[in-house]
Design brief:
The protein is mainly beta. Helix content is 11%, strand content 55%. A hairpin with a 2-residue loop joins strand 2 and strand 3. The longest helix is centred in the N-terminal third of the chain and has 19 residues. It starts with a helix and ends with a strand.
């Protein structure tokens, strides 16, 4: 099965599972608070765990082995969304997120008598406008979302640090998740997101980086 088809199936599964789990109204005459429409806005603060790829082309461009590249980053995501329109069971949302993650890895090579330490750092940040399609009620809903934004990606050998990219790279983001409000204004939420990053051309001070798709797993809180 193509990779893109697998990702689509994952998103469909997420939406289907949490739509079924979302609270539903019993009767039109017996509307409970949990059956009310999604509120006007929500803000998110989540921990971010992007998966970095061990690309041999990236490794060779900075003079390290492929296995020296970090594989899992750690960072934060801050986002906000508003919900201006409801169409039947679907609530349309508009918003965006700012995410940043980094990871370092140190590998000892060489021999016991002449060890060689190789350090590699990877940084990824993104600004991601999004439109979302939300399914559920005020106290719990699932969603799928996507948009076109910008990102910066750098993997560097610590022995030869690289300057930050002068400009951001166009990046498509898409994914899905859910929020559950255990309290009136506080919820737990998670998000599964893909970032399709355009290639970065080599410059006089930076190597080129190929087109890549990064998977990010996020979990944290939402407030309204």
């Amino acid at each position: 099965m193509p990779v893109s088809a697998k990702r689509l199936l994952i998103l469909v599964f997420l939406v289907g599972t949490f739509t079924i789990a979302s609270p539903r109204a019993t009767t039109a005459q017996e509307t409970q608070p949990e059956d009310l429409p999604i509120g006007r806005y929500v803000a998110d603060l989540r921990f971010n765990f992007p998966k970095f790829k061990q690309d041999p082309n990236v490794a060779s461009s900075i003079g390290v082995a492929t296995e020296d590249l970090p594989t899992r980053g750690f960072g934060l995501v801050v986002g906000a969304h508003v919900y201006p329109l409801r169409l039947g069971i679907v609530t349309i949302g508009l918003g965006g997120e700012i995410s940043k993650a980094t990871r370092g890895r140190t590998t000892n090579t060489g021999t016991d008598t002449a060890p060689v330490e190789v350090g590699v750092d990877t940084r990824f940040s993104a600004v991601s406008p999004q439109i979302s399609f939300n399914f559920g009620a005020r106290d719990g809903w699932s969603y799928i979302s996507g948009g076109i934004g910008w990102s910066k990606y750098t993997t560097e050998n610590r022995a030869h640090p690289l300057p930050d990219a002068e400009s951001a790279t166009k990046t498509i983001n898409y994914g899905g998740g859910a929020r559950w409000f255990a309290r009136k204004h506080l919820a737990f939420g998670f998000d599964v997101r893909f970032y399709a990053v355009n290639p970065q051309l080599a410059t006089a001070t930076r190597p080129g980086f190929p087109r890549m798709t990064l998977l990010s797993l996020c979990g944290g809180i939402s407030v309204r």
